Amino acid sequence: MKPITIRYYGLIPIRKQTYLVLQSIVLVLCGVWLIVGLFLIVWKPGRWDYLLVLGVVATAAEILDTIFTLRAFRRKEEEEKTRLEAGLASEPRHEDTNIK
C-alpha cells in the first residue's frame, strides 16, 4: 500500500509519518512552554500568568488539531483499503505508454 497523503489545512500535502514527527516536536515545545510558565509563576507571581494561560490554550489547540488530523488520516487509509479490496486501485494510465 502506498503512503497516505492528506492536504493539511487544505493547503499542504503531508504524509502521516511527517505529520507525526512535526507534531511531536510542536507538542514537546508546548510542554516546555507550560513548564516555563509554571516556573515563572512560582518565581515571580502575578507577572507571568498570561504566559501559562496562553500555553494551556496552545497545547489544547494542538491536541485537538492532532486528534482531527489523525482522524483524517484514518479515514483516508480506510478509503484506500476499501479501494484496494474492491480492485479499483490501479495505476493511473498516461497517454504515453512508456510512462508509468
Molecular structure report:
There is one protein chain. The chain is mostly helical and about 100 residues long. It has one domain. Helix content is about 65%, strand content about 10%. Strands 1-2 form a two-stranded antiparallel ribbon. A hairpin with a 3-residue loop joins strand 1 and strand 2. Helix 1 (about 15-45) packs antiparallel against helix 2. The longest helix is centred in the C-terminal third of the chain and has 38 residues, at about 50-85.
Task: Please name the defining characteristics of this protein.
2 helices, mainly alpha, 100 residues
Mean pLDDT: 84
**What's the β-strand tally?**
2
Strands across the major sheet, in which order? 1-2
**Uncertain segments:** none
How many structural domains does the protein architecture include? 1
Beta-strand residue fraction: 5-15%
Which structural class fits the helix and strand makeup?
mainly alpha
Tell me the distance between the termini: 17 Å
Order of helices and strands: EEHH
Helix content: 55-70%
Principal-axes geometry comes out as rod-shaped
- Radius of gyration (Å): 21 Å
Instruction: Give the biggest beta sheet.
Output: 2 strands, antiparallel
Helix tally?
2
